[in-house]
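REQUEST FORM: STRUCTURE PREDICTION
Request ID: SP-0412
Submitted by: Lab K.M.
Chain count: 1
Length (residues): 421
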Amino acid sequence: MAYKIEMPRVGESVVEAVIDKWLVKAGQRVEEYDPLVEVVTDKVAMEIPAPASGTITKIVVAAGDTVPIGAVIAEMDADDAPERSDPGPVESQGGTSYTPNFDRTGTLVQEANVGPTGGVFRDTSLQAPPQSPHTALSPVVMRLAAEHGIDPASVKGTGRSGRITKSDILAAVSRRNRAAHSIGDDGDELLIQNPVKKLTAEHMARSWREIPHAWSAIEIDVSGMVACRQANRESALGRHGVNLTYLPFTLWAAARSLAENKLLNSTWQGNRAYVRARINLGIAVATHDGLVVPVLHDADAGSVSQMAVRVSKIVSKAREGKLDLEDVRGGTFTLNNTGALGSVLGGAIINHPQTAILTTETVVKRPVAVSLEGRDKIEVREMMNACLSFDHRLIDGAEAAAFLQDFKGRLESIDADSTIE
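STATUS: Completed
RESULT:
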């Protein structure tokens, strides 16, 4: 039975993808779920699996081509009609078509950072164990190593349990080629961008080009939050098994502030913007394979401790390479924890199609003038800057300031006696 295999939908706002590399040839026999092709978008790099067992009859698009979502990329003669499990198939371009259900059968290779400027959430307890000399290599890694003449034994794996990843092989190729790409007597080197970085760069350029960015920053006294965290660290570890950081507090405050300032929780679809009913917060996480931005759906529900548990789980999934598409789609607002990098002030580029992004900066001790019992005095307080980048087409300064004041008020209302449960 003849089927047309189409480029699947892999996330909100994704309209096209690049064919990175075909893993099969016309005339080749494949089994159901065998990887057919590696594709790259500005959000994910992934392998598209075979929808059924059969024979690939035609490769429609070549490696390196950019194709729209829903376009036919290959044809196959299937043994049996594949089960259609995708919720709402895209319109076929003629003939019988099939779009695989990637939440069930796809392999998420890498999540590209498409908005934040590099904030990370660090937890040293989640570091991967040392590489085993008997670590198995995936077919993609073996093929890449063979194509580029890289000895896997010479590559240090950064994946789970020391597993050698596609990124490790590409990095080894890049290091080997640096001397060949040196230009001039000064030793300048040509930077080689992989498809993920190239599409991410295009996405960021589009965001900067299309969105009239405006910025606002506010200073927050987080002395009470610091004391609350210190007072609850042991109980959070004992009761929930999580390391309590500042991030759950700021996520908790941001989500509830968005509920009161709904315009900032909006996204674009084409040339129209929609205020989203659900509050889905994207957070930046550093992993061995690069920066990822998983999404905490319905982030306005639950306490600080529940937020800490959710953050711990999603970070663990990210660092173990277990994120699925549901973990990286549907974000309505992004919080970027640049304070973990020591930043004190910054303006992030908005993560299109969202309309605002918040950066929480590092907490520092500073002398501050405070009023106590009608008298002014100087005290050393724990201070943090919060910086908001917003789309001035939809959000004006008053609305941005209202959100920041709400966020500030919630954090400053926390003290050592506040409950996090």
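NOTES: The CA atoms of residues 4 and 75 lie 5 Å apart.
Reviewed by: T.R.
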